[in-house]
Write a structure and sequence with these properties.
alpha/beta; 8-stranded mixed sheet; 13 helices; 46% helix
């Protein structure tokens, strides 16, 4: 036998993409992914938490353009149209209208049908365990991952009640490595502490309540107005200069995500850590997609020298590593 035929075949090093939680800041993932693609990166593993699971899932399914188009179309009235209030369920919003909209674009695609490994981070509400959804209907996994407690009801999958993965793993770098990534690029939307000092979360949340009322009145939704009006006028008070209920919730979520992410990254940092400057974005400002997308792309370009070095190392290693050699 020819000696050359006995040599191990090169094994290409795999690139993983880890996408963090961040609610409305999540639109920045669209710009970041596009910028990374322009720089020549292809992803062999994708993990995401909350809105990161949504962006990663849409990219995996080839629907990133649709997600961008939809996000850019959002305004306060359109956002309002997706609010199917369900006070007797596990959250304020049922989420069925949003799921119906997602199915228009995603259909019933299943995670296991894709060639690239994908995992959506969720939290088991009974045990507190971190659950990685790697099989089943893609939009069900994404929906479970962004089920923020108190806002969306938890999702029941495989006899587990699952909620937002940000409760335990806002930036799933470790999951990316566990699924086979040799190099991990992480997009962290919760790292801008300086920007958080200028955040409008509290004031925006208060104003948002009254914006909802005004929009409901103009659209003539009297039944929903009665329900929302009574809730909103009790929760949001114009004569109160402190943070609103939602302001407290979003600020608390900010702190929690930042502290958990710092702790997790200390033990397993990514190879390239990209942190868009989004602290001044309110977590509920879903109608600021254009700005968020632009900042996601800019954050990647600021890291271009580091990304170029990482690509050089990866390329040179790919040329020299045999299939049976240790990583």
């Amino acid at each position: 036998m020819d000696a050359t035929n006995t040599q191990p075949r090169p094994r290409r090093r795999k690139i993983g993409l880890a996408l963090s939680s961040g609610m409305a800041r999540g639109w920045a993932h669209i710009g970041a992914i596009r910028a990374l693609k322009k720089l020549g990166f292809e992803f062999d593993v994708i993990t995401g938490c909350s809105v990161g699971a949504l962006a990663g899932g849409c990219y995996l399914a080839g629907k990133l353009d649709s997600l961008e188009e939809w996000s850019l179309s959002l305004n306060k009235r359109k956002i309002l149209s997706y609010l199917d209030m369900r006070l007797r369920s596990g959250g304020l919003i049922g989420g069925e209208k949003l799921m119906d909209e997602m199915r228009k674009y995603m259909g019933h695609a299943r995670i296991e049908d894709f060639s690239v490994p994908y995992a959506a981070m969720t939290t088991d509400l009974v045990t507190g365990h971190e659950i990685w959804l790697q099989k089943g209907e893609l939009i069900e996994a994404m929906r479970a991952s962004f089920s923020l407690p108190g806002i969306f009801p938890p999702a029941k999958i495989n006899n587990r009640w699952l909620a937002d993965g940000a409760l335990v793993c806002p930036l799933p770098v470790a999951a990316c490595r566990a699924l086979g990534a040799d190099m991990v690029i992480a997009i962290n939307l919760n790292a801008d502490m300086i920007g958080k000092s200028r955040s409008k979360d509290a004031s925006y949340s208060t104003a948002a309540g009254f914006d909802m009322l005004q929009a409901l009145e103009e659209e003539g939704h009297h039944e929903k107005l009665s329900l929302m009006g009574s809730i909103t006028r009790k929760i949001f008070r114009r004569d109160y200069d402190g943070p609103s209920v939602f302001g407290v919730m979003t600020s608390s979520l900010n702190i929690m995500q930042d502290r958990i992410t710092r702790s997790r990254l200390a033990g397993d940092p990514p190879d390239v850590h990209i942190a868009p400057r989004l602290g001044h974005f309110g977590l509920l400002e879903f109608d600021r997609a254009e700005e968020a997308i632009r900042e996601g792309e800019a954050a990647v370009m600021r890291k271009q020298p580091e990304l170029a070095d990482a690509m050089d190392i990866l390329t040179s290693t790919n040329r020299g590593v045999g299939e049976n050699e240790p990583i």
